[in-house]
Amino acid sequence: MIKAVIFDLDGTLVARDTWVRRLVGAQYDAHAAALARVAKPAFVSRFRP
To answer: How far apart are the first and last CA of the chain?
Structure first.
C-alpha cells in the first residue's frame, strides 16, 4: 500500500542534472569503442535534462 508520494519539482531532494550527466558519462565510458567518433563532452551535452 502506498502511504505517500513525494514530488521533487525543483531539484531540492535530488540533483537530477548532476545524476543524468554522471549516468550518461558512465554509459559513454562503457561503450567508448562504439562511440569513438563522438567526443565525450558532445555526447553528454546531448542528454541535458
So the answer is: 31
Question: In angstroms, rounded to a whole number, what is the distance separating the alpha carbons of residues 49 and 37?
Answer: 23
Per-residue pLDDT of the chain (49 residues; tens, 9 = 90+): 999 998 888 778 888 888 889 999 999 999 999 999 999 999 999 987 5
Convert 13-40 into a string of H (helix), E (strand) and C (coil).
CCCHHHHHHHHHHHHHHHCCCCCCCCCH
Burial 11-40 (b: 16+ CB within 10 A, else e): eeeeeeeeeebeebeeebeeeeeeeeeeee
Q: Which three cell numbers stand for residue 30?
A: 562503457
